[in-house]
Design goal:
about 290 residues, alpha+beta, 10-stranded mixed sheet, 8-stranded mixed sheet, 18 strands, about 20% helix, globular
């Protein structure tokens, strides 16, 4: 309970608006529910900023009365709470988060020059041929994939979409589960994501405006996210209070009930999916600026 209160206080501090800082979600206009943010527990904020901003190209913005920094990517914000994570993202329900870039070779070279460990050969699907830390793919928009391990053992996938004009865009959240079809069905039912057919590499999933929710089969049991480097994920919901009542009607337990924060013009709630992914629900996050 104390930890939940602490997370709530940190969320309030982070989301408190400050002038001259924009953190708007580009896809928020495209649906009643969109993906909102990744929320990390990090040992060293400066080290993570070097990875997410200086190397990958996210934009650091300062918000809140405490002048806290978050990192802005198109269609997903990245929050960092200082602390000691209990482990990396691998081995949890949220194995990694993914971004897309127009030039993967350039991005991989920059990551390697920064001293970050490329793990494409070990982490890519067995159907993908890997050359010089890049997995070669064909068909569809994605022409290559790569995997890197960032600070606190956070796993990140970078995919190449050559026609993309932005230097980097949030692309997907990737769940691992021993029951991938059930995970896919739950997110479709609860959040209204659009299911997609299984890919040739066996990955299934669904999509929300601006980001994909991918699911892979895990041969081993996976842990929940709370306390790990990717502590929780977040969805922005229009009409959150009514949505929370819908969740309760579905028998979904609230870890934190619907909580308005009038001074900030936002509201929040927390739930955990059946496999242990901790989820924050927000309304108004898209207007924080």
């Amino acid at each position: 309970m104390n930890r939940m209160r602490a997370l709530f206080v940190l969320a309030v501090l982070v989301l408190a608006p400050a002038p001259n800082a924009s953190a708007q979600l580009l896809a928020a206009k495209d649906g009643p529910i969109v993906y909102g943010h990744h929320h990390l527990v990090v040992t060293d904020v400066a080290e993570h900023k070097k990875f997410w901003v200086d190397t990958l190209g996210g934009v650091a913005v300062t918000i809140g009365t405490q002048n806290r920094e978050i990192v802005k990517f198109p269609n997903a914000l990245l929050f960092m709470n200082p602390g000691k994570p209990t482990g990396g993202s691998r081995g949890t329900t949220v194995n990694h988060i993914g971004f897309s870039v127009p030039n993967l070779r350039q991005t991989v070279d920059k990551l390697k020059a920064g001293g970050y460990k490329m793990v494409t050969a070990a982490e890519a699907p067995s159907t993908v041929k890997v050359q010089d830390d890049i997995g070669l793919t064909s068909g569809g928009d994605v022409s290559g994939i790569a995997y890197v391990i960032g600070p606190d053992d956070v796993k990140v996938e970078i995919v190449e979409i050559k026609k993309q004009t932005a230097p980097i865009v949030s692309h997907h959240v990737h769940f691992f589960s021993q029951k991938p079809e059930e995970v896919q069905a739950w997110y479709v039912k609860v959040f209204g994501s659009k299911p997609r057919a299984a890919a040739t590499n066996g990955i299934i999933g669904s999509d929300l405006p601006g980001i994909g929710l991918s699911v892979s089969n895990s041969p081993m049991p996976v842990a929940g996210t709370r306390g790990r480097v990717i502590d929780h994920i977040g969805f922005e919901v229009k009409g959150l209070e009514a949505f929370v009542k819908k969740l309760e009607a579905l028998g979904i337990k609230l870890d934190r009930p619907y909580t308005p924060v009038p001074a900030l013009g936002i509201s929040i709630a927390f739930i955990t999916d059946p496999w242990g992914t901790y989820i924050e629900l927000t309304e108004g996050l898209d207007k924080v600026s």
